[in-house]
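Incident log entry.

Two folding requests arrived from the same account within the same minute. Monitoring flagged them as a possible duplicate submission, but the sequences differ. Recording both here for audit purposes.

Request one:
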Amino acid sequence: MRVIVFFDLPTQTNKDRKIYARFRKDLINEGFIMLQESVYSKLALNNSIVKSIREKIYKNKPPKGIVQMLVITEKQYSGIEYVVGDKTQDVLDNTERLIVL
């Protein structure tokens, strides 16, 4: 499954920009990757992980703006069509595990 977070936060004041940066940094620290500006995605292996992700988003939510979450299956996610632009391969984003001994 994938958890996709969409957000639109105010950035008019210095305080607003700090809150925006903190929320974005929290997403990245939780393992989210940027799909496009203000749209982040994270792989979740089961429903209990999705629940944990949701709780962390609610805990770190900003006081103003809009934050939305969408949970979809991998099959649905793989159906993304690129109308303009190409998929980037900068980030390894799959269920493979790396073990360094």
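Request two (distinct sequence, not a duplicate):
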Amino acid sequence: MLKFYAEKVYLCSMNRLFSAILLLTIAATAVGQPVAKVLKQQSLKRYGIPAGNYSGITHLGGSRYAVCDDKAPDGFFVWNIDVDTVSGKIRQVRNEGFHASGCANRDAEDIAYAADLQTVFMASEQDGKIYAYAPDGQPKPTESPVLLDRFSKNTGLEGLTYDRQRRCLWAMEENGGEGHCRLLRLDQRLATLQTLHYPLDAPVAKKKGLTHVHGVSAVCALDDGRLLVLEREAWVPKKKIGAWVRCKLYVVSPQQLSEKQLVAAWRSRLNLTARSWANYEGMCLGPRMADGRCVLILLSDSQNRYGGVLQDRIRTVLLTLPATEAASVA
């Protein structure tokens, strides 16, 4: 009798928990807050994509995307990414070739496309500038002044996105020190309109290790004026086994950057039993699903499939956005 009563209490408690989670999800959607579902990551090797240092991705329209590689010559790849609009899963990725600018490598950390300008923008961490290109990769005579100086620990200009509704660019540094990153709003001529400070979460790594990277790795503009911000912390011990990467996806309003709302979080590892390590650096909105949700596409940087162990990864996150937002994402 006592056992039956305990089981009944447990079931009632679990039912209350599930009900609470459901109510919170419904409430979040009702007030216009994105709700996310993180799908399983895939290796790009299965699609014949060459090893790389993929650092940014942007939607060109349809199933075509521009991808930058921070170790490649200046320019960008064009990939055709087929996304199932019912499940949100990646069905195929095809490399359509590299569009070279003819310039030397600039350590391109992110890429954004402005369809109204027929212009691709890329953020250079090497010199802290943003450069403009035609869709065929040829450079345009447009570049920003130095926006952010290069930092000794490789934490300079990192994220870039284009707000098509307000016709402006947002650029962000990886880590400005003192617990924040500078977020810059630029006009279409790459003049700085505003400089803001985005508060970073405190790092969780307690030991120094071989490598420790902590900061913002990508940013993505939503049509309602808010931003998706990907915070990434990667820690590698001296013996490399036991390394991990933590990713947290936030939605923020530029007017209230301190009010960060967590949308999704995940972690990948490298140890004796798991090799899921994925350092996500690229992020952009993809197609809209049949049920109205939006697909967020993320790319990882494998450091050219370092040591034959790391893999270039791609994953999708399904976003439930406010009705006005979902209807405007193509």
